[in-house]
Amino acid sequence: MKKKIALVTGGFTGESVISLKSAAVVEKNLDHDLYDIFKILVYPGNWYHETSSGEKIPVDLNDFSIDLDGSKITFDGVFNILHGSPGEDGKLAGYFDMLGIPYTTCDPITSAITMNKGYTKAIVQSIPDLYVARSFHLFKNTEERREQILHELRLPLFIKPNSGGSSIGMSKVKEPNELKEALDKAFAEDSQVLVEEFVSGREFSIGIYNAKGETTVLPATEIVSSKEFFDFEAKYSPGVTEEITPGRMSEEEIERVNRICEKIYLKLNCKGAVRVDYFLEHETGKFYFIEINTVPGQTETSLISQQVKAIGMTVKQFYTDLIEEMFVRK
């Protein structure tokens, strides 16, 4: 008998549009011979499954079930592809843990911590050969803090919502008079903001996942953007960014990056597939950690699919491995 899998998408943030695109790609590539797939859309106060005829079937939140054609459907597991809150910040994971339903992503604690860029940097910076940019973690946008930033950090600066994703609300500040506007923009998206010194380096993104008893670091993708930085448009608009998989690294760099990234995955107690973004500094080749994404995008232009194919695996098999691994963990 085929397992029933809830494909959870939607969300409470601006990333919901990306989540829907990711879900469409995942649904197309899942093994429908092994699993019955039910797409579940999660919005504030409105969780539902949409039938092929367009009927919206509400989710019973008491046990995460739906009533379809007079039959109660419960789920063997959840494929979580909901970017941002509540799918990436631990809220959904905690809910599914209480119900005893396995899911493909990290547990509540890891999800909550890794959603917070400042806290994540504090945890991983003790890993050998891993560097982090000098930064400020802000809770308020005050003149005093802005003066402190300009006094203690070197321009240019990157300003980003501390718990945001898809580069929404992110800015690059080159001049002191640009700082307040950039902070206002970031604080409009989040109650905490991270201010980081610019690192001049080659940008990469790399997938790591656990399945069949081992942790696999995928080939890194090198990001060569025609934009100032890898922003929302660069991430999701075809042609704006050149993505080279595998990225151009020496054997020593590959070995070092893979070692560091596996330690990041293990230190943060990650589950399923995650993606780490990093720089290799131009002058030194040092590995500078940018952030970790515990629900990586799976759109047509996303990076994980490129990396999976680079090791000779189909995306369908990759998704199957993630699903089967969650049942092992249970």
Automatic annotation (TrEMBL):
One example GO MF annotation: D-alanine-D-alanine ligase activity
Q: Which pathway, per its entry?
A: Cell wall biogenesis; peptidoglycan biosynthesis
State its Enzyme Commission number(s).
6.3.2.4
Q: Give the required cofactors.
A: Mg(2+); Mn(2+)
Ranges for the ATP-grasp domain? 117-324
Q: Which domain of life is it from?
A: Bacteria
Q: Which SUPFAM superfamilies match?
A: Glutathione synthetase ATP-binding domain-like, PreATP-grasp domain
User: Which keywords belong to this entry?
Assistant: ATP-binding, Cell shape, Cell wall biogenesis/degradation, Cytoplasm, Ligase, Nucleotide-binding, Peptidoglycan synthesis
Protein's UniProt keywords contain Nucleotide-binding: yes
Q: What class of enzyme is it?
A: ligase
The main location class comes to cytoplasm
Where, per UniProt, does this protein localize? Answer: Cytoplasm
Record's catalysed reaction(s): 2 D-alanine + ATP = D-alanyl-D-alanine + ADP + phosphate + H(+)
Which family does the similarity line name? Belongs to the D-alanine--D-alanine ligase family.
Function of the molecule: Cell wall formation.
Specify the protein name.
D-alanine--D-alanine ligase
Annotated source species = Belliella marina
- Gene designation: ddl
